[in-house]
Amino acid sequence: MAFVKISEQPSLYDNLEKKSVGEILHDINNEDKKVALAVEKALPQIEQLVTRIVSRMKRGGRIFYMGAGTSGRLGVLDASEIPPTFGMDPSWVIGIIAGGDTALRSAVENAEDDTEQGWRDLQKYNIGELDTVIGIAASGTTPYVIGALEECRRHGILTAAISSNPDSPVGQAADISIEMVVGPEYVTGSSRMKSGTGQKMICNMITTSVMIKMGRVKGNRMVNMQLTNAKLIDRGTRMVVDELGLSYDEARRQLLMHGSVKAAVDAYRDGKQSHH
Q1: Is 81 a catalytic residue?
Q2: Is residue 23 among the annotated active site residues?
Q3: Which of 16, 77, 161, 225 could form a disulfide with 170 if both were Cys (CB 3.0 to 4.6 A apart)?
């Protein structure tokens, strides 16, 4: 039986160019409502993946996202947001896109068709058995991703696949297959739409839950966030005020001196203890 790509099936809507702007937006929004429900069905697989990542990361493992086109961009996006959000070194979560960083802005011809390049790209990072490689491919058939996952499995590296099609080749190439079946796209085959939205949701879920379990969040706050702009310094200052009961100015001074909410609070409390 041939593998059928639901993500490539004809749109449920037709004659799009004859519709009003209001109709187009309404119809796209109706399709978007399906995404979170499709992600919900994949929660058991996402949970299994996160649990296995945490135990490996505690021993020094890393997360690698791999994809081509939109899927590659979304992996790079999620990876790039981990250092500012959680104060993690950029080497903990790494996004790799077929065709390299040029492909973030422009399509790189045939980059996704090379079955061996993905594994070569991973070699630059001295990939090892504690690492986890998550392949992202809406179609479920991207050779770049499938080749990398197969090679990772041969080397005993934990693999997962995020795809929009059930029983896809990329899912079969991975230890954990996360299938988020969002149905046909509004513009037929345009997987930057529902598939991309679902991929972003799942990547956010994976890294957020891993970082919480790695102790990078306290209560519900990003206590390790980088203080890269005025808004974040203000948010951090208010966290320190809440935590220590200091005046705003003193809290801000402590925050900037120590570089993160967590470091400021810990240092202040340690200082208090040593005075007694």
Answers
A1: yes
A2: no
A3: 161
End-to-end CA distance of the chain: 75
In this prediction, residue 169 has a pLDDT band, given cuts at 50, 70 and 90, of very high
42 pLDDT band (50/70/90 cuts)?
very high
Q: Say what the pLDDT of residue 204 is.
A: 98
* Gap between the Cα atoms of 155 and 37, Å rounded: 35
pLDDT grade, residue 152 (50/70/90)?
very high
CA 263, CA 260: separation in Å to the nearest integer? 5
pLDDT average, residue stretch 32-55: 98
Name the helix (H) or strand (E) containing 176. Answer: strand 176-179
How high is the pLDDT of residue 1?
62
Catalytic-role residue among 31, 112, 150, 179: 112
Cα 196 to chain centroid, rounded: 11
Length of the chain as a residue count: 276
In order, the DSSP letters of the chain are: -PPP-GGGSPPS---GGGS-HHHHHHHHHHHHHHHHHHHHHTHHHHHHHHHHHHHHHTTT--EEEEESHHHHHHHHHHHHTHHHHH---TTSEEEEETT-GGGGTS--TTGGG-TTHHHHHHHTTT--TT-EEEEE-SSS--HHHHHHHHHHHHTT-EEEEEESSTT-HHHHTSSEEEE----S-SSTT-TTTHHHHHHHHHHHHHHHHHHHHTT--BTTB-TT----SHHHHHHHHHHHHHHH---HHHHHHHHHHHSSHHHHHHHHHHHHHHH-
Structure tokens at 189: 């085959």
Q: What is the pLDDT of residue 252?
A: 97
The pLDDT-based confidence of 3 (bands split at 50, 70, 90) is confident
